[in-house]
Structure formats: C-alpha cells, structure tokens
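Predict the 3D structure for this chain.
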Amino acid sequence: MKPFFGSTAPVTGEIGVLDEVRPSRLNRCCYVLVDLRGKKYIGSLRFGDDAFCRNFIDFIRRQRGKPIAKIGELEISFG
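Done. Predicted structure below.
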C-alpha cells in the first residue's frame, strides 16, 4: 500500500483498519483506504470478473471500521 497523502514509506501486510472502499471507473478494480495510526493508505485490488468485483465491494463495505487482519480471516463465497 502507498500513503494516500504525504511521503510516508509504503507498508505491507494485514495492517490498520478499513476506512473506505471505492469502485474504480475501470471495470474489475477497486481502491481500498486503510487507516494506520491516523495515517491514510490506499491500495488497489483488481479482479478477473466484473460480477465478483461488485460482490466483493458490496461485502467489504460492510466491514468498514474493522481491522484488516480480522477481515482477512473471513471466509467468503459469491457462488
């Protein structure tokens, strides 16, 4: 992930709290904003399927405010 604003070094792993998910104007892509100790980071996720991407965005938006590590433990299926 890269910082949303500023020159903070990039971070990796299941860190921070989910702040927001925004669909991209491009198909099969979304942006994930994470709060880590008051600093905002942004990452992008790309999917191979439009429907799966939309389902993922709908699901993950309901996880706002939760730690990324806890979200990463969830098992999901869009079948």
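The longest helix spans residues 50-61.
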